[in-house]
Amino acid sequence: MRYHDWIVKDTDAWSDLVNSFIPMVQRYEDSSSWRAGLTVQSGNIYRVLRWRQNSGRTAYRTPDQIRKTPSDEHYWLVLPQNGVYAAQHGDELTVAKPGFASIMALDEPCLLRMPPSDVYALALPRAEVDQHVRPTQRLRAVLDLQSGLGRIVQKLLHNLHDEKDQLSDREFNAVCDRLNELVCMLTVGDVTPTRDQLADVAAIVRQHVRQRIGPEQVHLIEVARALNWSPRQLKLALHSTGTTFRRLRQEEALREARDMLQNPLHRHTEISEIAARTGFSPVWFSTA
Predict the structure, then answer these.
(1) How far is 233 from 201, CA to CA, in rounded Å?
(2) Shortest CA distance to 153 belongs to which of 131, 125, 130, 124?
């Protein structure tokens, strides 16, 4: 088993490193202070990755990249430890948060969104997974790792990574074989309902809006563009949680205004100024 470890403080260097595994177009939220670490364990069949990044990024698999480098021999099991991992194929969205894992191939155009996060990933031989799972369509599943067999999978992968410098090739492959078997069992019987995924998307939208409350209104189209999703997807996700974008924006603006009113640093700030800072008119705010 081969084992490598990198610390990268430059987005160009990180893009080159990622492209050495699977070519993608990378976009970074903050390239000026980028820092990421990557650990890779590789055998003849399996590969285990763990990466940590201090800022968000979006990765695209383009049709041209797929023609040149299909990367169709593996499924990727991705386990976020913090941060929410989202993959978009057209209008279809697959979301995995901590306690869950996504499994899919990367041989078709897609968009991957990764916030500041700590993530494990396991490359599984596609032919073997297909033989056991026998998917009737493209395999894109979200697996529950919070209990039972799923928790065993997560702990086993953690232990495999922790012992990276102690395992022989044979031992590494034996553990990965067992992981492959367990993941196939999970995939056959445990696909998270779409409602849970939509709830995760709604939470991402709320967090994005919360960070941008200010004098200027936050608009749905701008949020969708920033998150690289369609307005229709965001409306659907918010509707599934019983709210709308307008209501969410208003709730977050009121929360920000309330925090300012309760903050001793703003005890001399006029109500009209607090209203302006949170995007409300003074008249509306005084009656809210």
Answers:
(1) 9
(2) 124
Q: Can you read off the two tokens belonging to residue 284? A: 């509306």
The residue from 141, 170, 192 where one domain ends is 192
Task: Name the amino acid, one letter, at 251.
Answer: E
Higher pLDDT among residues 262 and 75, named by residue = 75
Do 75 and 12 share a domain, yes or no? yes
Give the three-state DSSP class for 243: coil
Q: How far apart are the first and last CA of the chain?
A: 63
User: Which tokens go with 267?
Assistant: 């005890």
Query: Which has more pLDDT, 254 or 73?
Result: 73
Q: How is residue 10 written in tokens?
A: 């430059």
Q: Which pLDDT band holds residue 197 (cuts at 50, 70, 90)? A: low
| 280 and 160 co-located in one domain | no
Does 218 lie in the same domain as 184? Answer: no
**Comparing C-alpha atoms, which of 287, 258, 250 is closest to residue 274?**
258
Kindly state whether residues 77 and 42 are assigned to the same domain.
yes
| Whether the Cβ atoms of residue 127 and residue 229 lie closer than 8 Å to each other | no
Distance of CA 56 to the CA centre of its chain: 9
State the pLDDT at residue 179. Answer: 95
For 60, left (φ over 0), alpha (ψ -120 to 50), or beta? beta
Q: How many domains does the chain have?
A: 2
CA distance readout (Å), 146 to 99, 111, 173, 195:
5, 26, 25, 17
